[in-house]
Design brief:
The structure is a homotetramer. By secondary structure, chain A is an alpha/beta fold. The first copy, chain A, has a domain of about 160 residues: 3-Layer(aba) Sandwich (Rossmann fold). Helix content of chain A is about 45%, strand content about 15%. The first copy, chain A, is built from 17 helices and 13 strands. The first copy, chain A, has a six-stranded parallel β-sheet with strand order 3-2-1-4-5-6, with helices on both faces. In chain A, strands 7, 8, 9 and 10 form a four-stranded antiparallel β-sheet that branches. In chain A, strands 11-12-13 form a three-stranded antiparallel β-sheet, covered by helices on one side. In chain A, helix 5 crosses helix 14, helix 6 crosses helix 14 and helix 14 packs antiparallel against helix 15. Chain A is globular and about 55 Å long. Chains in contact: A-B, A-C, B-D, C-D. At the A-B interface, helix 9, helix 11, helix 14, helix 15 and helix 16 of A face helix 9, helix 11, helix 14, helix 15 and helix 16 of B. Chains A, B, C, D: Keywords: Cobalt, Glycosidase, Hydrolase, Iron, Manganese, Metal-binding, NAD, Nickel.
Chain lengths: ~425, ~425, ~425, ~425
């Protein structure tokens, strides 16, 4: 007889794991986890042990009957799991450094999820996720695969098209926006309703209700606050927002403020610090903290890491799937007519009702007319890149890159592609067989 | 009793007019023109007279019973017309110089139909065309308005949405491609069948049959010929074309080779010659030729002017509409489902069967997957710019420009818009009332 | 300062009203009704007073501060209302008798919501509802109009197209199915999730989960139970249901078992009792009960009246709209892409998330392939009949009837239409001016 | 070296063959047929010889170098063919008698292409056509399969979905309408343009131009002529046509005048003559004529056979495909968005431009709103019946029949299906293995 849930976390040695464990402890009543399997690769064994031991101490302190397993045997972890969650980085931070720096040398935005860097990450990551799907199909065919691995939209779409398992993509950005607005209005996150339209890392928020009152206009108009970094509209031109009638995702700055963002990246790289290098330092500090045998809870410092709320999003989703609560969450799911100009099988990021059988996307009440082309252009690139990743097809990869809105010409695309493929050769067997 | 057709040419003082007259003479059997009214504004009266007298000499030499009328009274010309054709430039070549140079100063492509320059031309032109439509609705409600005025796709779409008259947009590029291919294969243009997919100045040719044989692959692959300027594939990267499986319009170089084209524009401007200035010199020479009272035919030199085949396209279309020949021509027409991801009312440039009741777009047999996003992005910009033009709405104009694929940021868009609107103040009453 | 909600019930003298009052009392905590206005026409004043006095006694017994107002002044009742609900029958039971008997004389199903009878009811009712909308637009523009008036799908669609007010259509059939299944499985209605696809009185249930377990197959297969009238699958051929993979609405028997249902109607009419006449007797008994000054609660007998759960559905919906609870209810709403082959403005009956801004239809997870044509055919008829009602257009009414799946020929349609319009002359001013 | 075309006619012993041969002779200049292979089954060998010898005499009289081959070896006939045409009846006229009489006994229209009879014909015919497709794929992969075999729309759709060959469906009804109108207006068929919208044997004509003038209204209104059987509008109610604004196909009488047509069928059956039996007599007479060794041309009497113009349609289509003339013909082709509410892979009957690569459907300029539901309902039935035929699936066949607009109930559908399957057992191996 089944006594509780089995959960497998691929990339369990991640610095995010304590947040996830904290969530499982907090929500145990609604989500009775019996076994938590943290899986990682050999190269990550040291981190896995550090974070795993912290997890064990946290559970022990809670007094709950949750078994923590640490392993490099992915198949054992997956067998019979109810949920599989993935949070991993193929090629580790070294690959991220390359994703961020090679494009910059060609005068193109260097970012790990957006533009050429994001495409390289997708090419490395998608085949690994599809391998994981093979194991799930065989060993836990009823499991839900919750994918956080970036670029989450593309990876989730690839899984839907080629993985043959039940899967949902998640990002921390939507929950982050909710938290920001709730802080701004000094209310509970549950009292905020925001409607998201678009793709992962490319969404627009077209409705924000705070305690049942529409506050979008107020947020778009509030000029004096644009300088403050702790407000949702930080850094955007108020005239532009007002005529757009939507709040763009932070990642849209790479598209709307391309020249400015590029300059900023060049400046910070010249000062000797890509984002990857900053993250590396933060992680080192976190693992030092985690190693403390006295630590029995998630340290506050983790919240300053970029990925805050990732695990909260994951636990919320598992809880709703498990209980069929039919509540609304912002998720990455196949389009199937929700955005009428995108293909049915395109993954989009929108509000969904989470039923026991999975998420159902809610109809969009508004989609800003000006953004349709950009959204379609990025999705077109994504779909080409997914096919390139699955087939190891250079011609498709060239088409993807040449048609990416941030790439200024076919010749730049060609040069970039050649260099980036070569630099990632070890992680791209489908391209270099 | 009606004894033949009445045709009104708005912008009749254009240097293209002799080609049109030549066409009417050549096709008189199928298209019995009784009255040809050449209309122009006061400022163009001198040119109108020069070109009008040449037209009269051409007709006299032909011995055909066609009456040529020269006038500045547009309403008289339109009254009872069967066809109205427009070929005009609001603000004349001076405005074009500004369209081409202001964007360059902001590091953006400067071109009269593509990008910010094209948008300014649209803002100046659309209200004038809608005024002409008012006259047609009143004075010749059954007339066909054939629109050549650039940006032809946007202007035609504006007419369809707001003009209330029967209208078709035309461009010389499709017929030009046919002529190039027919020369390359040493056969008649009638033996070439090419399928066009896309928008005006933003199309891709996805099928080329020469005498019933598919030659697309051969044209895409023929590497040694890319250097030759008299071939369709001139200047494109063969690897890119082969994986795209389509021949892009010449104008697509502004999108696919942005950095290169921008550099070329900067170089030639520095050498003291925008395209507008080159055209001005060519036109001066043409009008000198036209003034010769001995000249009784279209001079060969006209063919070197960029707009070759414009008039051939026009005469072909009038002939097919008049006779209901159900033949196939490449035209700008409302989408109505032909390209499934674009709105029904978007004007597209595709092959059509020309019935007596107007053109019916043929279904596309192929549309390259990679180009969908770019096509949608440019159409999105076009639709916003049309609304801005009709309403004199700066906020919409900002959205249009900020979302144009060639504009690198919202701040550039804002600066450019401010400067260009100001520079065109005289021609933008809807913006400056 | 607003102290509670104002609710106007048009047709307040209906025998259903006590159920509604009971609901307001039960849910007062979530739905604080301050004023309840019961409106009826002069001819219904006697009933209004009987049912109104019972309502007052029920409220008094509850001790809640709800004011009951009885009036024939519709405008006073609507002014400033938060919710307007309608439950009325234009032409009263006499008109229903005609709706049920005239078609039978032509060999066609005689039913008050389905077929020619339903169309006559729509022709009588739609103009009256649109008049009510005029009052709401003027006097309570923010009010929600909850429409129970049959044929509810057509009436709601007409309101959406021509009424200019916020409106939702409701039916008791979906909630009735849920109650039947919950009784069958001995569980709470809240533990049942059923997915409805289709139109009002023309839906199919494609998923039934009981406490999270899929029971559709079991319900379709359970052959021995088909004879029992208290099960959802009562009377259907089990082979047919199994290959259909959906449970049809009771009303679909008029389409799937036309010959049998027609015979049954003819038999019962011959025995001297149409459905209308039966209902009349039940109503007379109810009002006798209601008149008892000792009665202070809804009598049990009301539940045997066909319309059980109507008021429960209404109170649930008001509560969710008022509180923005984002829960799921089965409602009649504009299609907007949910059923891809029906027009966007077609009203459909599907599960919706009820947000503060109104219902958002959930995507259908399944729609049985075989039923698409029938669904489209009935919706086509409905849309034609709505236009006929709004414009008093006989030609459209003929097209509607001639294309109704239950009408065997154009000549029958013509004869039926002539006779039915004449019989309803008093209620069809748009047809007889 | 190829010296001309090879054509294979499956069912070459048909009485229509002389018309086809006449067409090949007449159009030899545009369609140089070198080999004509007439194929039939053993049971049809006698007819094949009679009609084949007549064909040889016709060719000899023409003096053209066309070789006629008579054979029962289908594969030999197909090998290397340019065109394969099919005109056959699985089960011969005996099966047709059953298709027409069994439904009548259940009170349902008995017709060989419409309703239950048409479904049985489809179940018998589709597997045979798919077998022929296997041969074509192997032996003549570039051939065009022109399908006349009824129900032509369903058979063609099945070939498109499962046959893997290039195929087009043809019917003589559209060309017949053109001839009728040209006779009515005393002009050439080439001067008529009619727009067809719908399915095979279920189309509506929404535009009729005679010498460039719109005559639809005149044809719909002309009341005094409805009695005359040689006009297109014969037998329709003028009020109905006028409000429909379209001329329905003759076959639509089975839907629009169901009660009348049923009575007529019952009467004529009682008088001892189904349509099948009438046809049988006509055929016997034709073959007697064909046997005359003096006959060297198509006899006039053939035109009185129902299928007049079938062969003219076929020869026209082959000629256009061979020469890429881009002319317009009414054909059965996959929908692909032409009728927006039908699936992309549904076969529809519409005007097409016949290019060298096959037909491209023209956009419909009008589709009568009232007919959408009926069109969708019949197409739904067709798609279910195709799947039933391909898979020998009784459950799908039941769904198809139960949802057919002419079948009054599930129980009638079930009884009919059982009886008809049994009666066709010899021709339905997929159902009876």
């Amino acid at each position: 007889m089944k006594q509780g849930l089995k959960i497998a976390v691929i990339g369990g040695g991640s610095s995010y794991t304590p947040e996830l464990v904290e969530g499982f402890i907090r929500d145990y009543g609604d989500l009775p986890v019996r076994e938590l399997w943290l899986v990682d690769i050999e190269a990550g064994l040291n981190k896995l042990n550090i974070v795993g031991e912290l997890a064990k101490r946290m559970v022990a302190a809670s007094g709950l009957p949750i078994d923590i397993h640490l392993t490099t045997d992915r198949r054992q972890a997956i067998r019979g799991a109810d949920f599989v969650s993935t949070q991993m980085r193929i090629g580790m931070l070294e690959a991220r450094v390359r994703d961020e720096t090679i494009p910059l040398r060609h005068g193109v935005i260097g970012q790990e999820t957006t533009g050429p860097g994001g495409m390289m990450k997708a090419l490395r990551t998608i085949p690994v996720l599809l391998d994981i799907c093979k194991d799930i199909k065989e060993l836990a065919p009823q499991a839900w695969l919750l994918n956080f691995t970036n670029p989450a939209g593309m990876v989730t779409e690839a899984i839907h098209k080629y993985g043959g398992v039940r899967s949902i993509g998640l990002c921390n950005a939507p929950i982050g926006l909710i938290k920001l607005v709730s802080a701004r209005y000094n209310t509970q996150p549950e009292r905020i309703y925001a409607e998201f339209a678009g793709l992962n890392h490319l969404h627009w928020v077209t409705r924000i209700e705070v305690e049942g009152e529409d506050k979008l206009q107020e947020l778009l108009e509030n000029r004096e606050q644009y300088a403050a970094s702790n407000v949702p509209q930080h850094g955007w031109d108020p005239d532009f927002l007002r005529s757009l009638q939507a709040l763009p995702s932070y990642y849209l700055k790479y598209y709307y403020l391309t020249d400015f963002m590029l300059q900023e990246q060049l400046n910070s790289t010249n000062k000797g610090g890509t984002r990857a290098e900053v993250v590396k330092r933060v992680e080192d500090e976190l693992f030092k903290l985690y190693s403390d045998p006295q630590l029995k809870e998630k340290p506050k410092q983790l919240e300053q890491r970029g990925g805050a709320y990732y695990s909260e999003a994951a636990v919320n989703l598992m809880r709703s799937l498990h209980n069929g609560t039919n509540d609304i969450q912002t998720l990455n799911v196949p389009n199937r007519g929700t955005i009428d100009f995108l293909p049915d099988d395109a993954c989009i990021e929108v509000n969904c009702v989470v039923t026991k059988n999975g998420p159902l996307p809610l109809p969009l009440t508004k989609i800003p007319q000006p953004v349709k082309g950009l959204m379609h252009a990025v999705k077109t690139y994504e779909q080409l890149a997914i096919e390139a990743a699955v087939n190891g097809d250079r011609a498709l990869a060239l088409q993807a890159l040449a048609h990416h809105p941030l790439v200024p010409s076919v010749s730049t695309a060609k040069a970039l592609l050649t260099e980036m493929l070569e630099a990632n050769r070890d992680y791209l067997p489908r391209f270099f067989d």
